[in-house]
Design brief:
The structure is a homodimer of 248-residue chains. Helices cover 28% and strands 25% of the residues of chain A. By secondary structure, chain A is an alpha/beta fold. The interface between A and B is large, with 37 and 37 residues. Chains A, B: It comes from Epilithonimonas hungarica.
Chain lengths: 248, 248
């Protein structure tokens, strides 16, 4: 570990700040990871650190990485958090990810909210689900709000973007879509190998996606009031995964 | 319905803005409900509207209420939302709520995050759970962020604050606490009548609460990685309620 102290240049600050936008993440092929807790897991992951900035490099016991010691007011300038943590790692976005052959995977059709995607990745990690396939218009996994919401779980779940229609038309196993009018999740048998599909927060699944799905499933509402709002997509994912794994 | 147009006085604006703080909500005995969708449900609920402000009163087909038509820039001043909706209702905080005798209820021991409390109230409503007992230091249900996160479900769930230690020492039915080292939720039988207890986001259940609990339960982690962050409290509540109701 080599610690060095240098003032952040205006150019560096500007570049890092631009990583808030997908356009610039793609241009530089970089994204941000914040906080020692998650940063400490990076050396054991597939992710490569390009630059590492910290107000307390002593707390990061890395062997090979160079750490640039920065001041709290510099950290404030490069952090996307309202309350910046200790360190910021600028990481390389991996080249084309390889689709894995897994028994249960999630498919997301146009999820827009970074918090929802982050929470779903964290959930997937909890249940040992290793892969999430996203439609190309799903929010970017390298969006700083998504990365933050995963609490480090993005390191362990393979999140891939693809043309869903194309993907689903060649996918060989059952696909279960979730909406308000499907079969009761408590009354069906889940297959051994399948994909569980969630749609956009406001509009649900696209018709073009729904056409390619084997079965629609629903969490029954036990409350009697009709005006009760349907559950949020990440909460639905949690409850359905909970039910799938109750039988494992 | 009587619509009248008047400029909001600086005093009114200041009073409404102060309802962001518990101290002032208690002083005036008032809280805010935003958005026509939820406001339309108020006349059929136990809540009484003190004042109703709207940029489009025509869309609120109320019989008895007086509605004050305001301008979008006035709405901006009295709304707590980043993107204000159409209307703001100033409602009366009900006097002492009466505890109901229900079969399944939730108990919250020091939940701090308004989003978590709101989400848990929304979940309770989905599953038809009519009562949530909160420790006195749990975030206030009339906090505007809580009300917003419930998506109207606060109208249907009885949320009461009390001294938990005192309450639990006289409560007659089984109490199930949730933490990382309890019995597997998939391997236990849930009683007919009981309370499900969740602790603070960072610290879990207080020792004084845990001492009074019949059994601790846990959602098993299926992912193999030890560094996977434990699930957020509202997500845990969703998964456990999902499991309880899978047997109903």
């Amino acid at each position: 570990m080599k610690i060095f102290v240098d003032m952040l240049t205006a150019h560096t600050i500007k570049t890092i700040q631009s990583l808030d936008k997908k356009k610039y993440r793609q241009k530089y092929n970089l994204f941000l990871v914040e906080g020692n807790k998650i940063i400490k897991e990076l050396p054991d992951s597939d992710y490569e650190i390009e630059n590492l900035y910290s107000v307390n490099p002593e707390n990061l016991s890395f062997k090979t990485e160079e750490i640039e010691k920065i001041l709290p007011n510099e950290l404030k300038k490069i952090s996307f958090l309202q309350h910046p943590k200790d360190s910021v790692a600028v990481c390389k976005i991996p080249e084309n990810k390889i689709l894995k052959d897994v028994s249960i995977q999630l498919i997301l059709d146009g999820i827009q909210d970074p918090g929802n995607l982050g929470t779903i990745i964290r959930l997937a990690d909890w249940f040992g689900i290793e892969q999430i396939i996203c439609s190309n218009d799903t929010v970017d996994v390298y969006n700083p709000k998504v990365i933050q919401a995963t609490m480090g779980s993005f390191l362990r779940v393979n999140v891939c973007y693809t043309d869903l229609e194309e993907y689903l038309s060649t996918y060989q196993y059952p696909t279960l879509g979730t909406d308000m009018n499907g079969e009761n999740i408590y009354k069906i048998e889940f297959p051994e190998k399948f994909s569980l599909i969630f749609g956009n927060e406001g509009n649900g699944l696209r018709a073009s996606t729904e056409n390619l799905i084997s079965k629609m499933i629903t969490i029954p509402r036990f409350g009697k009031n009709q005006s009760t709002e349907s559950l949020n997509v990440s909460m639905s994912a949690g409850i359905i995964l909970g039910e799938i794994f109750s039988k494992k």
